[in-house]
Write a structure and sequence with these properties.
With 163 residues, this protein is mostly helical. Helices cover 51% and strands 11% of the residues.
Length: 163
Amino acid sequence: MDRPGLKQLLADVKSGKVDVVVVYKVDRLIRSLTDFARIVEILDTAGASFVSVTQAFNTTNSMGRLTLNVLLSFAQFEREVIAERIRDKVAASKARGRWIGGSLPLGYDAIDEKLVPVAEEAATVRHIMQSYPEGGTIQDLRETLAREGTSPRPATRLLPSTS
């Protein structure tokens, strides 16, 4: 629902500029049943309808709404299954010790999808870990480290294979 184009479309529906929303496929517009319920409510209030070019239904009758809800249920299910698969794949990669991207932790580089300690940064990491229990908040620690001139390296990097 937080997409600029969708917000503009709904504003145009509310202002009466649009009386029929036509899509190629429903799941190209939205994949959440609750969000779609909000959209249908906006359409109903404005006296507008919703039609899919490739799927035989529209929101002007109860059968069309039922069909639409079934399609959206499958779209939402598909989105959730994809998210679960991605989370499982990331977890499996981590369990195998593979680095699959993101910000590198201080003290490590990624070589051949593996985290490898950086000896030059080990002293900094030890200092940070020893300073933390001395009290205060993370922000206090950050300020103390900045005063000392201790800071993480700039942009993270992925190094090519050494083989």
